[in-house]
TrEMBL record:
Domain of life (superkingdom): Bacteria
Protein name in UniProt: Nitroreductase family protein
Keywords, ordered alphabetically: Flavoprotein, FMN, Oxidoreductase
Gene Ontology MF, one: oxidoreductase activity
Source organism of this protein record: Bacteroides intestinalis
Amino acid sequence: MDFYQVLEKRRTIRDFSDKEVTDEVLEKVLSAAFKAPTNDHLRQFEFVVVRDRENIARLISPVAENTQNIQQTGLETAADVMDKDEHAMFVDALPKQRRMLMQSNCLVLPFFRQKDCPLCHPANQSSLNYFASAWAAVENILLAATAEGLACAFRIPIGNEPEYVKQLVGAPNEYEFTCFLAIGYAAENAHICKQKDIRVEDRIHKNVW
């Protein structure tokens, strides 16, 4: 698949089929993370892969309650002022948060080593470089998965989810949990949210100073 076709085809899919992702394909996809730019040049990523649905259920046990109490409540409060495409996406996404992480039966937990400054408590703009490195790695995974014909959905942890996951898997203190990442094959009738239409020429500003 051409690189620009991959960019065009990459979408968040929250409805998965029962088809299993092989270890060979999964390793190929995750290896793409180590090709991403990284601030400290050390590429200190670690990935926990969970396939057993009973174990997945344990890892994501806070998700349903947090989705309802934090995200769903916030959506209802802000519904009247939200962009219509943004609102439509959340209406589809929020009820599927727990299900999508279970359904693919391939849950990946990316961890990134926090060097010098905690990722989630940056001291200044420069210390965000570590956070950017973690998400550059995740983006490479999303693109590689698309190139392999896979679908992905991720959930950025909220509330007590990061510490809960880190404690459950025994992650060292210096590693930060990035996101829940479901990787699988899209269901035949998978819903695809409308992307925001962007005129690129309207976002490029030349010689503005």
